[in-house]
Design goal:
Strand order of the largest sheet: 3-1-2-4
Number of domains: 2
Order of helices and strands: HEEEHEH
Helix content: 40-55%
Structural class: alpha+beta
Strand content: 15-25%
Number of helices: 3
Radius of gyration: 29 Å
Number of strands: 4
Shape: rod-shaped
Largest sheet: 4 strands, mixed
């Protein structure tokens, strides 16, 4: 008790001050826990990565431009999931295979 002031008014001031800090820390902990829960729920609810995707061209109704393996980092934002059969058919129709993920090799279509 040597590091604390001996008089009651200063002790009460310290108690109030540190009480406010404890409340702020508790709020920060609650916010971080909420953020973790939301992140975990998002991961649980995220749809599975498709096996195959086709990248679409720019504009409404434009044809597909490239076929990718589902988790390809190179696929653009305009894409949709397709089945294995659709991926093979797209490659047979002359739609380009991604040079990074090589879906033609994965599908056995060379």
């Amino acid at each position: 008790m040597y590091d604390l002031p001996p008089d009651l008014p200063r002790l009460r001031t310290l108690r109030t001050w540190y009480g406010m800090w404890v409340a702020r820390i508790d709020e920060a902990i609650a916010a971080a826990e909420q953020q973790e829960r939301e992140k975990q729920q998002g991961e649980e609810r995220r749809p599975p990565t498709p096996d195959w995707i086709v990248e679409l061209g720019i504009g409404v109704g434009s044809p597909p431009i490239e076929v990718h393996v589902g988790g390809c980092y190179s696929a653009g934002k305009r894409r949709r999931a397709i089945s294995r059969e659709q991926a093979v058919a797209a490659l047979d129709q002359g739609i380009r295979a991604c040079i990074h993920c090589r879906p033609d090799t994965e599908l056995g279509v060379l």
